[in-house]
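re: ur question from earlier - yeah i can do the single chain one, its not a big deal. heres the input i used so u can compare w yours
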Amino acid sequence: MRTPAAERDELDLERYRGELTGYCYRMLGSTFDADDAVQEALVRAWQAADRFEGRSSVRSWLYRIATNVCLDHLRSRQRRAMPMDLSSPVPSSTPPVDTAPDHAWLEPVADRDVMPLGADPAEQAVVRDTVRLAFVAALQVLPPRQRAVLILREVLCWSAADVAELLGTTVVSVNSALQRARATLAERQVEPGGQPRELGDAERDLLARYVQAFERYDMEALVGVLHEDASISMPPFRMWMQGIDQLPGWYLGHGIGCKGSRLLPLEVSGSPAFAQYKPGPGGRLTPWCIQVLELRDGRIAHIHHFLDTRLFARFGLPAEL
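and the output i got, formated as tokens:
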């Protein structure tokens, strides 16, 4: 006779951690919240394993638990956003003083942490495309259940019947929620599963020139790789700036402390990214921010600077250089 312990051992829940992290990240917009939600879902599943009757797959059962964890979490939290969602750009002379708490901001995620086990190159490309900051920020505008429906249907390609079963509702309700969610994303000119692709030689050259310009703090070279309406943001600061007529003034003004920084390449939020280490005490380079870049028309269109240095340890980066 099989024991409950033996049944738990056979479930191999850990193999689903990566894809569940991706799901919870899209739902919650936070690396740290996603970690907590996945851990809670796996603990709940482990505790209930002896009651799992096998009427659905283990994967579907885990997604049901993870969805409930996320929905519970979202009942007590405001949506996460980016500075560009909340205000207009400000002049480069604006002092960086107005902040919002960490839980107000969207956070980046390491690509490797959201990959399903054994994902092929095509699946990996779709995952990266659907953890882009613009897409995840748009998801946060949706009501939580619409958000779950859109992710399950459009990103994970579940059938309407399977989503209805997971959410305890009807196919008609699921289809209606999906239609409303699609309309909201269309208004924001964002859609899942666009045309994900690897960076080409031109993009890699652009990034190399950006790194060289930033590390040399060469404003002329830096402006040369930026789109004319390029912008930068720096959560937790509410402010953001736009335009190559403004950005050099920021870098040479309030942002002058970044001079002498070093950038380490990362794979974050499906986008080119860098860990920025800033000059610190004793000549050491210490963690400052995670930069996530958006490219458009062969130039850099936006640079997100995430100043939460907890991300360095979370992404496995060194404590100093």
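Confidence is low (pLDDT under 50) at residues 1-9. not sure if urs matches, ping me
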